[in-house]
Amino acid sequence: MRQNLRSHGSTHTETNKISGTVVDMNGAVIQGAKIALLFENTEKVSAITDYAGSFHLDQIAPGKYALQVEYPGFKLLRVENLGITTEEDQVLSLILSETRYFMGVVATESISVIESSPSAIPTEPPLPRKTKKPRP
Hints:
This protein is mainly β. The chain is built from no helices and eleven strands.
């Protein structure tokens, strides 16, 4: 486990990291997406995805967070209730879907993590429902 020396006093705090990749619905990597880790709607740390769509957020204190992913032309993705512990690092696979603009309104998607393990966090947006066309 990693130890982080805080600037206030000599307190050592256990920390962890979050890493992963960001792709579109077709599996193409998204380079340059902004990943922000939020605590009580305040950004604590952020990163930009690299050429392979990968990101790394280090020195994360244990707690419940929201993770937000933004990239132009795609719906904002927000993962709620992301639990961070000192026991294991979190590895996420995030899938963004293209956005549709309606009179200046941008659509967003939000998912909530109810239960998770470090390698199996559900971060895919819901798939559209199939509808049957009426018969002529």
